[in-house]
Amino acid sequence: MWRILTAEPHAHMTFPDILEEVNTSGMKHTLFVVAIPFVLGLAAIVLPGIGPSVTGAPADTAVQDPDTIPEVARMVYIPPGEFIMGSSLEDLDDLAEQDEYPRRVVWLDGYYIDVHEVTNSQYKVFVDSMEIAPPHLWKDGNYPVGQDGYPVVDVSWEDARMYAEFVGKRLPTEEEWEKAARGTDGRHYPWGNEFSTHLVNRETLQPVMSNPGNRSPYGLFDMAGNAAEWVDAWYAPYPVPEGEKLPKSFAHRRQGFREETHRVYRGGSWNTLGKYLRCANREREKPERKWRYIGFRCVMDPPWRQKQPGQ
Q: Average of pLDDT values for 51-60?
């Protein structure tokens, strides 16, 4: 069950102090800051016929979630557990790309993720506070009038990483992003397996949460279309077991893997063809590049899984 958490935190919550409040499309919300280093445990298991293990299932000593999950404004909690990641040989025969192979089951610890992409108004707080250069599309240090609630774009991967650090969060891993987008059933798009032009914005950038139908199983908005999203991953092939190598008939499909030269972005954008809006699709770009269709959203480790000083 997913929840969109928009309310102010309860008084009994043991979360970090509030950094500040910003207005997004006339909606007041709170950004939380966690000053403790983040630690994310990633693991994976294998089911017959699905694909290879990534790192293995969680240990018996893994930290368990509390009975009541604290609410965080404008974020959704993704519970720990398995999900189906990547694409199969059958998918490659259809719309998938070679860099999405193999399809496998991955286990992740729980984490919080922004319900929508970082907006212009949120990013301006960072720009003004840190006195850094704004996106090139802004004029005189300001985004266009009336675009408070639009996704911030024209930012590099490093810009996105620094913003996330500024608000006490981080960029999602590819695994975290894909689970949040497609849920646990391996669907092709956030809303299901069939593409629909009515559920995605494919004409121009729009305010976040503009299309109620474009939501993931966890209730996240715009995981397909609007702005594409940087993630914390180098573009590299997924691990493939020796017995599951791609047949030679797929040798002509996308190559281009280079060792730690390109960062991954996910989700497609307003100017993307439907096949590239699939949850498993991966795109790459040099981390210093900025495009008017790439933005980002952030994740945060739950406080019960963060290491305390001296640990």
A: 49
- Omega of the bond leading into 102 within 30 degrees of 0 (cis): yes
- The CA distance from 281 to 208, in Å, is 21
Q: How would residue 37 be classed by pLDDT, with cut points 50, 70 and 90? A: very low
Domain boundaries of the chain, sorted by first residue: 18-60+71-244+257-305
Residue whose tokens read 């990633």 = 42
CATH superfamily of 18-60+71-244+257-305: paralog of FGE (formylglycine-generating enzyme) (3.90.1580.10)
Q: Buried (b) or exposed (e) across 91-119, using 16+ Cβ within 10 A?
A: bbeebbbbbbbbbbbbbbbbbbbbbbbbb
Average pLDDT over residues 58-81: 84
Host H or E run for residue 165? helix 157-166
Sheet strand arrangement including 294-295:
283-285, 263-266, 228-234, 294-295
Beta strand 283-285 pairing with 263-266 = antiparallel
